[in-house]
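Workshop exercise sheet. Pairs work together: one partner reads the sequence aloud, the other fills in the structure field after running the prediction. Swap roles for the next sheet.
Pair: D.N. / O.F.
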Amino acid sequence: MSVKITRNAAKVIKKELDKEENKGLVLKVLITHAHGDHAHYGMDLVKPKENDHIVSTDKEIDVILDKDEPLLDGVKLDYLYFPQEGFVITNPSKGNHGDH
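Structure field:
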């Protein structure tokens, strides 16, 4: 399984992970709703569990993914400042190019 995190997203995520109240937590990307051939994604900071599948990224951020969910493999996290500031999670490897 793979995860791509853009430079903008990595900056925001690292800033959040560095907060004292988030020590020991790991970023988890999940599917909030799936239909047809695409999904809507979400993310959270959680304490890793023994059976969690943790993927390392080139931005030195570990991400927990459900290894039994194929729509999570190849997910891309970006952070946009325009037109609206916030995270955008897509999966280009699965044809998921929209704002999901």
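Discussion prompt: The chain has a mean pLDDT of 91. What would you look at next?
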